[in-house]
Design a protein that fits this description.
CATH architecture of the largest domain: Sandwich
Number of domains: 2
Distance between the termini: 53 Å
Helix content: 25-40%
Order of helices and strands: HEEEEEHEE
Shape: rod-shaped
CATH class of the largest domain: Mainly Beta
Largest sheet: 4 strands, antiparallel
Number of helices: 2
Number of strands: 7
Radius of gyration: 22 Å
CATH topology of the largest domain: mini-chromosome maintenance (MCM) complex, domain 2
Length: 125
């Protein structure tokens, strides 16, 4: 092995280490944002509610129907709704990034953004 080969290997290791460090810093910066529940109605954003603040918001619609969004202890749930099937009310509470609750009759979707990643993959649910 020649002297220049050693220098080349050292340079490659330094560049790879720098890339790994930058990637780690960028990933940490993205996860420092607070987790929020994003509520959309018929495709338009209604509001963003942080999961670290206990909240109860009743969302009323023009036709008299409603959904009550409840956030407590870092989890989000639809506690009450006027829809006939009550699927959104019976849905398990959500807290992990990408999870959502859907109320089809009211065209309401609640999605978690910037939350923790679920340690259980989709195949085991």
């Amino acid at each position: 092995m020649k002297k220049n080969d050693v220098y080349l290997i050292i340079c490659i290791l330094v560049v790879c280490g720098g890339i790994a460090l930058i990637t780690n810093l960028v990933t940490r910066a993205k996860t420092t944002d607070a987790a929020v529940a994003v509520v959309t109605i018929d495709g338009s954003e209604y509001g963003r509610f942080p999961l670290d603040v206990d909240t109860e918001e009743t969302i009323r619609f023009e036709d008299g129907s409603y959904n009550t969004l409840t956030i407590h202890d870092g989890i989000c749930d639809i506690s009450e709704a006027s829809c006939p099937d009550q699927i959104c009310v019976n849905h398990m509470p959500i807290q992990y990034n990408g999870q959502n609750i859907v109320c089809l009759p009211n065209k309401l979707v609640v999605t978690i953004e910037n939350g923790e990643e679920d340690d259980i993959d989709g195949m085991t649910h």
